[in-house]
Amino acid sequence: MDHLTFLKKLPKTETHLHLEAALPYSFLQELDAEAFAALPASWDKNYRYESFDEFSQQVLLYAGTWFTSIERYRQAARATFAGLIEQNVRYLEVSVTSGILEYYKLDPRAVLAAVREEVPEELEVRLFMGIHHTGYTEAMGPLLDDSVTWPELDGYDLQGKEDVPVGDWAPGLWQRAREHGKFTKAHAGELCGPKFIRWVLDEMGVQRLEHGVRAIEDQALVRRLSEENIVLDVCPISNLKLRVVPSLSEHPVIALSEAGVRCTLSTDDPVAFGNTLTGEYVAMAEEGGVSLETLIGFARNGFHAALVEEDVRARWLDELEKAVKSL
User: Fold this and answer.
1) Among 14, 93, 162, 190, the one annotated catalytic
2) Structural domain total, the chain
């Protein structure tokens, strides 16, 4: 059995995905065939973004063109979920970006409800509010404060450019969220190094890191992540195309895993990278030189990190082990 066949069959999780950046490009082509006739150059395997700003502008162009209504969120969610089910994904954590909701004056709670209504029986989904470092604005602040009580929302994810100072509001909101049973995480260790990772752990009390790969620069921090069982939701192709790593064979996820840090694999922003979850696994096998045993471990970590009841987790892990035995 070749890598693609096995890794597509393997039960998986996707725990680092931005809904607005998971938009099927075909939706844009149907909306404006002339403007979006050609596939993005950034989908080419050898493409590298010149800067994070270039990447952000591209994602904002795509997301801002499509996500102008609650119905469009619904359509994108439906297609995204279907695409993940085709790849044997059982569990998903996906974020909705507060800045897009604010720009188009969309009701955040209504958007979350619409997205949740599209969740199929075959997929377990947890919805996060993605908030940028300066996202607690005059308009959004009261809504974000109230959102800790919303049953439609499962957690919060600090997002955006890491070198932009985080507002004073963030630690308090993250603490209140946990007091209301929400799960909290943050993007850290992608653009900035160990210092920012330590800040989100110590000041915001996050329970998971999105990326986190630059922790490898500080062995004391690596040991802490391992000892405290802080999971890293890693996106190798994103890291490669944003020049965080020089190649997949040199990706820190390999050394981090060997040091006992639990890592998962995800896609981050498929519309900007042209990637799929199965493709992430295949790329790490064929270009990164990662063994199937290690890749299976990443999938297993995803199920251990999933925010589900233990009986559900056990059922998924049993499915995974059965797939492994079919090798």
Assistant:
1) 190
2) 1
